[in-house]
Amino acid sequence: MIARLRAATAAQHQQLEQQALFARLLRADLCLADYRAVLRCLYRVHAALEPALCAHLAAINPPWRYVPRLPLLQQDLQSLADALPDTPPRVPLTAAEVPGVLYVLEGSLLGGQLIARHLRQQFGPEIPQSFYRLGAQLPPQHWRHFAIWLAQQLPTAAAQLCAEQAAQQTFTRFLAAADADSRTS
User: Fold this and answer.
1) How far apart are CA 55 and CA 23, in angstroms?
2) Buried b / exposed e across 126-140, counting CB within 10 Å, b at 16+?
3) Cβ contact 129:116 at 8 Å
4) In terms of Cα–Cα distance, which of 134, 142, 30 is closest to 76?
């Protein structure tokens, strides 16, 4: 199932990595202003998605642990003496959309570890990076347990299609937020 979702979102994933705001994350000339802008962008998307997502997860109690990202983003922004962005409207999610949204969010933990290393090299170990360090702090079997759960949640073609569409919509949310930040920065 992971391979199917990866294929369904490959173009959007690549777009997001090449989007100006996120492309700066791994550059040697990354500055704190760019890092703050990325965190604000991530904050807005997670603030919109996490309330519904966490409510669904509390109801089903999956065999792996979802760590809410919003408190980590708040902590990083406040440590950088940055004001929290306005909270966007909450996005309602159906139970059928949750696996697709989670595919994107949990998958980002893998790339986050690479970004965390770059941030340490760029700014030193004191740089606030609770959000990006999360993946390295989870148990090694986290992704495997998530992948097993994900496959169990998508037994039918209709469920798989819904998850693909939700994953694509999640990438679209990140792209729209990043594009909006790029226009204002």
Assistant:
1) 32
2) ebbbbbbbbbeebee
3) yes
4) 134
Q: How far is the C-alpha of 2 from the C-alpha of 107, rounded, in Å?
A: 10
CA separation for the pair 84, 111 (Å, rounded): 24
Domains along the sequence of the chain with CATH: 29-184 (1.20.910.10)
* Closest to 39 in 3D by CA, of 98, 100, 99, 123: 123
Of the candidates 17, 173, 38, 37, the residue with the CA atom closest to the CA atom of residue 97: 173
pLDDT values of the chain reduced to their tens digit, one per residue, 185 residues = 899 999 999 999 999 999 999 999 999 999 999 999 999 999 999 999 999 999 999 999 898 999 999 999 999 999 998 888 888 999 999 999 999 999 999 999 988 999 999 999 999 999 999 999 999 999 989 999 999 999 999 999 999 999 999 999 999 999 999 988 666 55
Q: What is the distance between the alpha carbons of residues 145 and 5, in angstroms, rounded to a whole number? A: 16
Q: Read off the pTM.
A: 0.94
Predicted confidence (pLDDT) per residue in 112-151, tens digit: 999 999 999 999 999 999 999 999 999 989 999 999 999 9
Q: How many helices (H) and strands (E) does the chain have?
A: 8, 0
Amino acid (1-letter code) at residue 82: D
- The whole-angstrom separation of Cα 25 and Cα 32 is 10
